[in-house]
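__Record contents__

***
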Amino acid sequence: VQLTESGGGSVQAGGSLRLSCVVSGLPFSTSAMGWFRQAPGKEREFVATISWRDRDTRYADSVAGRFTISRDNAKSTVYLQTDSLKPEDAAVYYCAARAAIWGSTLTRDYAYWGQGTQVTVSS
């Protein structure tokens, strides 16, 4: 199983980035996906999750209304559109896959993780 994130970078506050995660080695269309992030000195935290058919999405309160998670099952790819970025959004962003159709906000529910992509936001 391999999860490969891309799309991170450095932006000014108020800017946007679109993160992508390509998945191989598991039945993507029946796997719920999640995005998490980890800032230096902090624990990894939930950002967003999406169910297998895109019918259920959930967000952390800190990103709701600014971030959007989506998926393209034909491309085995999950996306995280990040808008109106703030300095406190700076972190390494990880995508994760779980062997279930419904998403979860808990890191322990995800069996597979990518290597992460860095997001830097300057004020």
Observations:
- The chain has a mean pLDDT of 96.
